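Hi R.,

Here's the chain you asked about this morning:
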Amino acid sequence: LKGDYDMPTITDWLMVIITFVYVIATIFICVFNGRSAKASRDQVQESQKQFHEAKRLEYMPMLQMQFSHSDDDPREAEYIDICPSEAEASSTTSQFFNLKNVGNGTAINIIFTWKFIDLGFSDTDYLPVCAIMQGDSYKINLSCDMDNNLPQSSTLSLEFEYNDLLGNKYEQKIFLRIEDEEFVRCENDLPK
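And the predicted structure, written out as tokens:
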């Protein structure tokens, strides 16, 4: 009795097995292509990060403060008063400094906070200069009212906050040492 239905032949079974293997291989190819695409996306993101970091370093300002010469014209200086307390000052010490941008880019929106580390006094203000371009230098006269609350030697920090032209924000500390009512040391940290 032969009907409308034929028994599957070996060829039919081989076609089923080949189709099954093809489906499994296609699934593996899709999985590996997905992993490869993800690796490519990660590599592009890393390249973008490196590009932005290189751009940031290209435009990064760095402020350097150092003692200025005694023959400076006081009319050319920007004056910053540092008053550690409300008590009446027994004397005032002042020192001229050069504040120079030794970095690659312009520093803008410059704010500084001075802190007497030993006493806990601090205050924040804008620098009298709006921006310091690469290579520019400004004379700063730091004037400190001394009173009996200050020890003979104390450490003062100037903490600058500023932006570069790309909008990145930096913080940089400069430490000053006062001994016997005189500025004796100036140390510059790197911007962070």
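The longest helix spans residues 10-58.

Let me know if you need anything else.
M.
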